[in-house]
Each structure stands twice: as structure tokens, then as C-alpha cells.
Specification:
195 residues; alpha/beta; three-stranded mixed beta sheet; 37% helix
Length: 195
Amino acid sequence: MATISIGELMTVKLETIDSSSSAQEASKKMKENNTSSLVVIDNNNNNKPIGIVTERDLVRKVCLNDASSSNMLIKNIMSSFPLVTIDVRSSVGAAADVMIQNKVRHLLVVEENNDISKPLGIIAPTDFVDYLKENLNIEDDDDDVNAKILESLKEGEEVVEELEQQGKLEKDSQKGGEEYEDEEPRQGSKTKEFL
């Protein structure tokens, strides 16, 4: 397996939004920049990053609550508060561990001295795709891809169980969504083929 640092996987282009902006403004900015997250900054504190707002935050905290997106402030819905960071030289495994331990999907990548005022990039689950593809030796054969993904997910479940046994992860932290198991996938027939 190739050993690479988070600095080689991270997304360098950071899109930011002020904490006093609305959820509607965040949604528009995400659409315009084709991104699923924005680094939340505090304009009153030299544009210091203070959190991250994601599409998931918008869905769970605005849409599901039928809240007005033009009146809902980013500072009230952002996740990762306090902001979770990772050193640019950290391994992929270390980043995954930090995500699991903090129950977040995005990490702000910073220099060794953990200076969040000068972020270098962001790491999100989608940034792991090429790494996984390379290290799982995935080729173009769909059956092979599906088998390797399922194998990887199974290994991930074993890691979660081990962390739960060690008391490093809350029991059944990966449970949820059982009430939706019988629903048809909304992403189309490709999803059904995978399952």
C-alpha cells in the first residue's frame, strides 16, 4: 500500500463564508462553486476559521425543520465546532481516525503548529476515493469494484467493533436508518445493481 500524506489528498481550494451569513447564501455559494462544504470564518476576528458548514448541515438543520433559509444563520447550523483539524503531514489512517473519533466528515488541514488562521486545505470523504481506488487495485470491472468495496466496508465494520470494545467509540455509533431499509433507492437503478 502506498503511504501518502493528507497534504497529497486534500482539496487545496477552500471556499469560505462568514458566520453571520444565511443558510440560503451558503447554499448558493456551494452551488456556484460546485462544493459540498464551506469553511466558516469570523469576519470580526481576522477571518479566522471557526467551523465548517456542509450540505448535510443544511438538509438536517434547515430543510428538515422547515426553517427559513434566508433567516437561519450559518453560525447556528455549522458543524465541527470547535473546528477539527489535522496536520498536513498526517497519514490517511490518522485522518480517518480523527474523523471517526470526532464524528465529522470534514477536517481542516493545517501546518504542524496547528495554526488554523492559515488553513492549507480541507479533507473530505470524497478525497479518499482515488487513494482507495489505487490501494484496492480497483480496475474497470464493475463486479470487481463492488466486491472490493464490500470487502473494504466489512473491514471497516471490524475496526468499528474493535474501537467499541476498547471503549474508544460509543456502542452502536454506526447504527441508524433502520426505518429506511425497505425503501427503494432514490439514486436510480445503478444503486440497486451495486447492492
